[in-house]
Amino acid sequence: MKFFFMLLKTQVVQDKINGDSLKVYDKINLNRNFINNPKRGVNVEKTFEVNYEGHQISVINTWINGEKLYIDGNLQDENLGLSFRGTLKGKFINVNNEVRNVKVSIGGFFSISCRIFVENELVYPIRN
């Protein structure tokens, strides 16, 4: 995110040199609108979901807000900001009252890949 705003500030300085009358906050709003507008074809959020033993495990990855792990709708872990590789951890209790550990490995450069493990067993993506 720091890199993004550094580029943004560079653009504002160049605009002032060229005589453009846009203000700093206008530039920031224009860029935020571009990033948050899915109609422009910019994919800024990707969700990975799996149902395991009746529990919904969801991982949401966004460019700006990082990665988040939800189990049954409850936020368990998050990484903030832009990263190329992240690990998230969480827990849930199964029907036998046993605590089950969840680990997520997520990352990529041009496309995001996600692996979800429960007790060191790969549950997403499902391999045949």
Summing up helix and strand content along with how strands pair, one would put the structural category as alpha+beta
Instruction: Identify the CATH class of the largest domain.
Output: Mainly Beta
What is the global morphology? Answer: globular
Tell me the count of domains: 2
* Biggest sheet statistics: 4 strands, antiparallel
Instruction: Using the 3D structure, state the CATH architecture of the largest domain.
Output: Beta Barrel
What is the overall pLDDT average? Answer: 75
Radius of gyration: 19 Å
Give the % helix. 10-25%
Number of helical segments?
2
Cα distance spanning the termini: 38 Å
- The ordered string of helix (H) and strand (E) elements is HHEEEEEEEE
Taking pLDDT < 50 over at least 5 consecutive residues as the criterion, the unreliable ranges are 1-34
Q: If you consult CATH, what is the topology of the largest domain?
A: Lipocalin
- Content of β-strand: 35-45%
Describe this structure in words.
Helices cover 23% and strands 44% of the residues. With 128 residues, it is an alpha+beta fold. The protein folds into 2 domains: 39 residues, no CATH class; 80 residues, Lipocalin (Beta Barrel). The chain has a 4-stranded antiparallel beta sheet with strand order 1-2-3-4, with no helix packed on it. A 4-stranded antiparallel beta sheet has the order 5-6-7-8, with no helix packed on it. The two termini are 38 Å apart.
